[in-house]
C-alpha cells in the first residue's frame, strides 16, 4: 500500500454540486440514495437504491438541469447503468434483472429477455463509436453462463434480440468487452474468452487475500486495466501486459478515465493519476455522507471527454478536466518552472497540446526566466520556440522608439511578466527583488526567489555580461532562420551592439567581414567613437563602401607604422607563432582584398602606392587580379607605378604580355628594357661588393642567373620589341648571349657568329646557328673566324678542326684550303682535310655514275617507244572492235599499248580517257616490256 504524497497540481477542477433529491423535487421523507451513475454525451444518468432513474442535462456543466425521473420498481435497486446510443437505449442492471429504457426516460422500462440473477454486464467497447450501425452487443453473466446478446434496432423503434451462450464460467464479479475479447473477473482471477469462438484462457490468478477484482477498458480501444489490490495491470486484447502498471494509494472501489488521467475512489477519497506512467497528481476532497461507496463516472469513450462525475449517496459533484494550458499557466503563476516544463513535456508526449502552443509556452517560460535573471535558461527556451520572433528581443537591447520598434509583434502572452525593457533595467529590478527577498527571508517569510541568488547574490556587472552573452547566443541562432530583410537588419545590428558592449573584437570583425545585414548608419558613430576602426573598415568593405574602407585601412597602416597603435603581432592576435604579421601588413592585406575586386581605376591607383610601400607582392596581386569585372587601363597603371618599384613594373608587364596576350610593341619593349636594366644593375652591384662571404656570393649569383634567364627567354620568345633599343642599353655590358639574341633578331649573322665563336667560345652553339642559316658559306665564314679571330687573339685551331670534322664533307675544298692559315699545324688538319678530299672525290664519281645511268635509261625508253611505233598490225574481215564489238572492215582504228583495238568512233567517244578497250589504264597500269638494257 503506497502512502499518499501531497497534491502536486490540479488536473480536475470543480464545476457544480447538485442535490438530486432537491432538483427532482423528492420530499425529504423519502430521500434518494445514489447507487449508480453514467455519462453519455451531455446527459447524466443516476440510479438509486429505491429503484429510480434520474436524468440531468449537462449542456451547461456549471448549472446542471433536471430533466426527468423514471421509477422502475421500489424493490429494484439500480447497480449499473450502460448507455447504448447505437440502438437508442439505456441498459440498466437492477436487482439481477436487465432493463431497457429510452435515452430520455420518456417511456416505462422493459425487461430484456427473461434473464434473472445477472451478476455482471458489459457492452462491447466500440459499438457506440458509430451510432449509424444501429446495433450493439453486450456480454452478460448469469449463473455459470457467459452469454452474448446482440441488439439490432429495427423499424418502428423495435429491437431484435439474439442471445447465445459463449462459455461456462462461475463466480463472475465483473466483465469488460474489448474488440473480440471478453475479460472476466472472478474472485480467483482473470480470464479471457473469445466472443466468437468461446475459447478461453486464464490470464493470471489472484492471491487469496486479494480485494475485489475490477476490469476497466481504457481509451484507445486496445488496452484494459486489471486490478490486483492497489495495482492496475495494463494488458492488451490478448491479455499480455503492456506498458507500466499503475500503483494506487488505496485499493480502488470505482475506476473512471478522462484521458490522460485515471480517477479512482477508495477509503472515502478520490485520487487522480496520470495514465502513461501512473504518477499521482491530485486528491479531490469529497465530504461523504451516508452509507455506500463513492462512485466515479465518465463517458465510456475516454478520448475527448472533459467531464467526470463523483457521486456520494446524496450528492453529485461535477468536475471538469483542467486544460493543459491552464495547468501550465498555474505552475508558471507559482513560478514552479520545473513543474511547468515537466507538464509541457508530459502533454507533448500525450498529444494534449498543439505545436503552436508548445512554442508559445516556451516563449512565455523564456520571458519569465529572463525577468528572474536566469538568462541562460531563458534563451534555451527561446530557442525551443518555433514561433517566437527575434524582434521580440529587440526592446531588451535598445529602448523604444527606434528604427525597429514597429517590427516588435504585439503578442498576447499570459500577463505573467512585465513589459519588455532594456536589460539594465531588468537587472536592476531583479536585484531589488533579491534584496527584498533577503529581508523577507530573515523575517521568516518564504519567497519565490531562487535560493541560489539568495545564498550567493550576483553582482550587476556579472549579470549584465551573462545576459548579453546569452542574448548574443539567441541572435546568432536567429541568423540561421528565414527572416525578413528588416528583421535580419535588426538582428545583425543589435548583435554588433552587444559584441561591442563586451568588447568582443574578434566576433565583431568576423561579423563585419562576413555577409551581414548590419545597418551602417546605426553603427558608424558607435564604432568610430569606441575606436573599433578595424571593425568599421570590415563593415564598409562588406557593404561595398570601398572608398571609406580603404581610407580607414590607410589610416590604420599609418598609425601602426608610426607606432601610434600597439602592433597586433605583439599580443598574438593575428596569425600563429609561425606566421605572424604586423598590424601594418594586415591593413595592407585587407586593403588589397578590396582593391582586387574593384574596377574603379582612380580608387585602385590612389591606394596602390601605400600598399606597395608595405608589400610589393600585394600591389602586384592587386594589379594582376582576375576578380574584377573589367581590367584596369594598362596606360594608367604603368604611368602610376613608382619608378623605383621596378619589380612591380616588371611583374605587371609580364602579366600583361603573358596572361593578357598584350601585343603592343611598346609594352614588350618596356618589359625587355626593364629586365635588361635590372640585369645590368645586379651585375654592377655584385661586382661592387666582392668582399661578401660565400653564402652571399652564391645568393647574388643565383639572382643574376634567374634575371638573365628571364631576359633571355623573353628576348627569344617575343618578336614585338625593338631590338635596337635593347642593344643601346646593354651595348657596354658583358651580356654577350643577350646581344647575340638581339643581333639574330636583326639578321646580323656575322655579328652573331662572332659573339658565339669568339666572345662566348661556344662552338656547338655557333655550329647550330650555321645549321639554322642553312648555307655552306656560313660554315666557311665560321671557319675563317676560328682561324683569324683578329684583335690579337690566338687562332682557335681546335674549334676549326672540330668544325671541319663535323661539316667538312659538305664544304667546298677550295674555299676551305683558301681559309686555312699558314700557321695551322699540319698534323691537326691533315687527317680531316684528307677525309674531306676523299669524300669530295667519292661524291664526284658517284654523281658521274648516276648521270650515266640516267642517260642509259633515257636511251632505253626512246628505243622502246620507237619499237612500239614501228609495229605492224594485221586485221582481217573478222577483226572486231574491243569496245563496241563491231566489225572493223575498212574502218579507221586505234591500237592501245595493251594490244587492244578499237574503232575510231569509240576512240573519239573515249577521248580524254586513258583506258583502253579492255579497261586498262595507261596512266595507272604501266606496261613494262623488256628492252636492250634489261635483256643485256
TrEMBL record:
Biological process (GO), any one: intracellular protein transport
Residue ranges of CHCR repeats: 624-796
PROSITE patterns xref list: CHCR, CNH
Record domain CNH: where: 31-299
A Pfam entry, by short name: CNH
Signal peptide: none
Chain coiled-coil ranges: none
Protein name: CNH domain-containing protein
